[in-house]
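User: Show me an example of a complex going from sequences to structure tokens.

Assistant: Sure. Here are the input components:
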Amino acid sequence: MKQEFGKLWRKDSTKSVLASLISIIIGMVVGGIIIVIVGLGNSNLGISGAMEGIRLVFGGLFSTGRNAAGALTFGFNSTNMGDMLFRATPLILTGLSVAVAFKTGLFNIGAPGQYLMGTAATLMLALGIPSQSVPTWLIWIIAFAGGMLAGALWGCIPGLVKAFLNINEVLACIMTNWIAANLVTWMFDGSNFRNLVENTKSGYIYKTSFNGVQTAKMGLDKIFPNSQVNGGIIIAIVIAILIYILMNKTTLGYELKACGANRHAARYAGIADKRNIVLSMAIAGALSGAAASLYYLSGNTEFFWSTYQTLPATGFNGIPVALLAASNPIAVIFTGCFMSMLDIVGLQLTNLTAYNEYITDVIIAVIVYLSAFSLVIKMLLNGRKKRKAPVAQEAKPAPAAPPPDESGAAEGKGGDGV
Amino acid sequence: MTFLIQQTLIYAVPLMIVALAGVFAERSGIINLALEGIMIFGAFAGVLFVNLTQKAGTFAEAKAAGDWVALQGFMLLAMLVAAVLGALFSLLLSFASVNLKADQTIGGTALNLLAPALVLFFIRIIANQNTLQMAEGDSASWFMIKKSFFGYGRSEDMGFFGSTFIDKTYLATYICILLFVVLSILLYKTRFGLRLRSCGENPQAADSLGINVYKMRYAGTTISGALAGMGGFVYAMTTANCASTGDVAGFGFLALAVMIFGNWKPLNIAGSALLFGLFKCIAASYSSIDINGDGVFLLAQLGISPHFYRMLPYLITLIVLAFTSKKSRAPKAEGIPYDKGQR
């Protein structure tokens, strides 16, 4: 037994999980400290307010509001659980998008732009095809495919300029993000997809359910009543497993990872590095597009079309999801759930206390900051100094195939249990 | 024409100074992707300082008496506060990338996520809304230079030069230009500058000559943070009426593009900042640009969608980068953590 534990301890994947857990814990502690400082400095909140804030940060998922005496109550909350799964759906997919690019040595900060293009294509197809003549399930599939395609094409642009013109993909991604934000606003401005029926919804596009198109619930609404959950989460998990197979069991996946490890060596070995860079960005873009499709095809989400000044946070939050999961597609499922849990926590904080949801963004940012040197944390766990400095997250070409269930379970625990 | 030049300068100057901030960091070997975040943080710090000072009534007398020298001093103080806090914020990046040898791209991204989150969190608590504004009055009435300061009447003409470069301008614009020149000289004509640049090209060689690479990288990133923080406040003051919203609309990234387009050289950067400033200015006020002063608003009459003009700066950046990237020469050691044992 002891020997087995030692073996587990020495495994690289165990250390990755531990490093992620440490990042999460430190992130939440920093969030707690900020809450206490603000609480003490603000007469409305005081120490009791700060304690409530901290309890919500750690257990917000199980919050059931306040009782008659005004104290916070906790318990199983099916709305929160279901909404967490619903919000996790796009996060898992944007996380996969960033993870796939990471494996190829690219930093896909363009997920927000790809997400927006996916949104536009999905909404236009889902609302534009008349549901009188075409069955709604077919419209759903067309809209989903269209969203993925639009994302893929948008992802290709940074890939192409990186591969052929050697432009830093980070910069190209940022520019395509803002171009997408303006382009999408332009496309919807003046279109008849805008919701002009309900006066209070002036800046929004119709829900796809307006045209009768929405994702099947697949029985999940029975398990989590009163929540927005739908079959999208199952599709996202299936996609994550497919990506895992693609990256770890196929030639294409091997080639992509080889390019990420060392582009020049890969070319020397006869791998078309330029093609693979473009392909990797296209896959990443398709995943971000799918994220948008699943989110907006749910039928109860509305898109604020005048978006030229803001980029969707879901896209950016794919970065921490991928980093925490150490770019492992299976682990992304669990880190995606963790991130959406933080979202729910933020909502509970806004609704129940004088704090606001941005504290969870602070926690996320701290986690990203820590994962920038997660290799250092891993080194500390190793207890010995490695000669070579950590170069980059993606420097490890072929991680020792981690036992997916185990890493995931630990990740999930870190999210909910603490 | 006057309007066009003034507006272009307003957008070009923060770009210029923030691009120079990028140069300082990258020349010392650290990729500063966090420029955007530092700008956001600096803008918040400066606006908060202005807000609190106004509430305390420190400059209320000067304002009432029309003592514009004191008010300009107030503005300089706010710029200084923004710079100091920007520098402090950038220490997070230098600590991660110098001491912990972390991935600089991810570290920078973390700061970019952290800044708006922190800023919005505090703004919500302080102001109970998503924007923090001045406590009273607006940016123009407090900080703008007007011709009345120089004894001109309301209807008197200052001439082309006066009305373009003095009337209705901000002192901050000229301070930034001055700083830009001084710091460029510092980087290229002094011993400190040479040492800093050597750390971005070949840190091992620099170290062998007794230069402390870690210190130099800290210096580069800290100067970078100070400039970016100040640039952020100047941007908020001149274009956003001294309001902090946790957003600078991708300006920090545009500055990075300007830096790359300018090939990491100050003179080229000044030129490209002016070019991008012009596009930004067109995007912001295309409908009221009257180029030759004959009352014809050419750009508005073309009938092109405003969304196109807004997209233009980013589109041009991408295209320009595509054409210039082959020639561009980044500092050799940028992005690589310095490891003493490595050869």
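The lines above are the inputs; the final block is the predicted structure for all two components together. Chain B has a mean pLDDT of 83.
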